[in-house]
Description:
Number of helices: 3
Number of strands: 4
Largest sheet: 4 strands, antiparallel
Distance between the termini: 21 Å
Order of helices and strands: EHEEHHE
Strand content: 15-25%
CATH architecture: 2-Layer Sandwich
Helix content: 25-40%
CATH class: Alpha Beta
Shape: globular
Strand order of the largest sheet: 2-3-1-4
Amino acid sequence: MPYTILIFLTRHPSLTSEEFRNHWENVYIPLNKSLTGHLFPLLFKRHYFARIDRAGFGGAANRDRPALLLRGSVDDFDYDSMGEMTFDSEAAFREYYRVLYEPKAAALLAREEKYFLDTQKVIIVVVGDSTGSR
Length: 134
């Protein structure tokens, strides 16, 4: 049974949305892959939230470019992206996670995270059941 993890990220305040995306795609993900090798998720989707230009209406991290919310408050939703990692099983995820937290890997990833993320706002959650409709 697939095992899915969702990651909600807010960019570091010193970066633009474009710089954040570039760093996640072209620095952090390749580093993660190089550290985890065959343990890297079967699929790691990254979703970037649509933004509008509206000075002074966004949350703290995106004051002038709030997310294009259809419902809810920008004060409650200040994320720049969501990652969706899919593994074969919980055991596969646990092995991946173990490798990420070996001292050398953890130090390399933490250095990059401090550069491009607001690390205090990172949320990572395990998905239980999923259903779909067409």
